[in-house]
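In response to the reviewer comment on reproducibility (Comment 2.3), we provide here a single inverse folding case reported in full, input and output, so that an independent group could reproduce the run without further information from us. The structure tokens appear first.
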């Protein structure tokens, strides 16, 4: 795409907005890939981030004047590499052979790497290095490798954006200060680092689906997450959790067409039109989960995939096997008692026993400090209170869930449910 110019060569009045949109699109689509490759080549995450940020700023300044390049991503890559080289020269490091090998002279032809996605996965394994604080490994991958901004990560982790930014900055400073080497882990090290990588991949997918912040929510991070999960599994074919994650992501993707109704509201899984589900993805997920089960090493991703596969059986039987789902949630909670797993267990228990009091009791057992700012807990509480006929409590819980929601689709859904409850009052 090229910006139109007048006969005198000046850009038209709409050049700046078009250029800004092109730069934003290039950043959204390619930021993670470019940053991964630059960081891998330069061996410095912070320097790569600064160089790419400067390249994006240069795009905003020059594209309105010169026109948007036909290959915006390649332009940004070239500009960022030039910035890294200039910074190295400024620090009088160009005499160092390591620098001159990593960053050739500006006259050297720059081509995009042929296997950029693999570079991203390599950098994710670097971010899973034991020297990096365990709680920060997946978070660092989400921001640095997958290009998710700190504010979105903070919302998912239920912390203030400023606090998350400080944590990430401190982590990167520690990496730089300790001189962490950007080397691919040896094969024997990959299994120990795998879970952090899988958690980051799954985190990217859930952010994409839950926030609906991308203009193409079903075709951005969720698709990239599935791709990276498949690549990770190909590196470690005997690791069942990698296969479990593939199955889980495939099952989530299989229901994309049934996820929203005509008004843009979320459709509960047990109410979705199964004719809209992708049977090929379900079949693939079934095969991956069966292969994982043969390893006889159950893990949280396998349990979550098994729960989703049990829901998928409704396409064949016409009924949701709530008793089986409750048992699977019990296994998941015993192995990995996250608040999300415990909420799912509470809902499944209510449906399996046809007794909302059982589900409400399980919800109340969750630590009040953890549930206070957890949107899904309030949504589940509202749903079960509504089923129990506790109208006032349900309305209050819906209000709280709505206040904590950042997803447009979820907000619309909660508003509709709250309004329906108000309208149904005598």
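Designed residues, in position order:
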């Amino acid at each position: 795409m090229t910006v139109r110019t007048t006969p005198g060569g000046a850009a038209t009045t709409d050049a700046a907005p078009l250029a800004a949109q092109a730069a934003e699109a290039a950043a959204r689509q390619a930021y993670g890939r470019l940053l991964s490759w630059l960081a891998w080549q330069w061996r410095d995450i912070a320097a790569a981030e600064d160089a790419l940020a400067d390249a994006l700023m240069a795009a905003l300044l020059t594209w309105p004047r010169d026109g948007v390049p036909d290959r915006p991503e390649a332009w940004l890559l070239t500009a960022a590499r030039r910035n890294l080289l200039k910074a190295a020269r400024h620090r009088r490091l160009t005499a160092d052979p390591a620098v001159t090998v990593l960053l050739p002279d500006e006259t050297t032809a720059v081509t995009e790497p042929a296997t950029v996605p693999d570079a991203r996965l390599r950098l994710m394994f670097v971010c899973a290095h034991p020297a990096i604080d365990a709680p920060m490994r997946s978070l660092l991958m989400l921001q640095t490798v997958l290009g998710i901004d700190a504010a979105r990560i903070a919302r998912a982790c239920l912390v203030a954006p400023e606090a998350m930014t400080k944590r990430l900055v401190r982590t990167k400073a520690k990496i730089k200060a300790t001189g962490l080497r950007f080397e691919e882990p040896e094969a024997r090290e990959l299994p120990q680092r795998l879970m952090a990588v899988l958690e980051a991949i799954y985190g990217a997918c859930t952010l994409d689906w839950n926030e609906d912040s991308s203009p193409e929510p079903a075709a951005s991070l969720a698709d990239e997450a599935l791709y990276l999960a498949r690549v990770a599994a190909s590196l470690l074919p005997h690791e069942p959790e990698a296969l479990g994650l593939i199955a889980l992501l495939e099952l989530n993707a299989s229901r994309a067409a049934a996820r929203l109704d005509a008004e843009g509201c979320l459709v509960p899984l047990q109410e979705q039109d199964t004719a809209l589900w992708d049977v090929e993805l379900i079949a693939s997920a079934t095969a991956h989960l069966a292969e994982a089960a043969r390893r006889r090493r159950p893990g949280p991703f396998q349990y979550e995939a098994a729960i989703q596969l049990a829901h998928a059986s409704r396409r064949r039987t016409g009924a949701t096997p709530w008793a089986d789902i409750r048992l699977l949630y019990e296994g998941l909670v015993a192995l990995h008692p996250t608040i999300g797993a415990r909420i799912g267990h509470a809902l499944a228990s209510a449906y399996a026993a046809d007794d909302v009091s059982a589900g409400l009791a399980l919800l109340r057992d969750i630590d009040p400090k953890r549930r206070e700012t957890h949107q899904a807990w309030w949504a589940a509480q509202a749903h079960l209170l509504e089923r129990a006929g506790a109208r006032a409590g349900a309305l209050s819980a819906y209000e709280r869930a709505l206040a904590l929601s950042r997803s447009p689709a979820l907000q619309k859904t909660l508003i509709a449910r709250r309004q329906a409850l108000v309208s149904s009052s005598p």
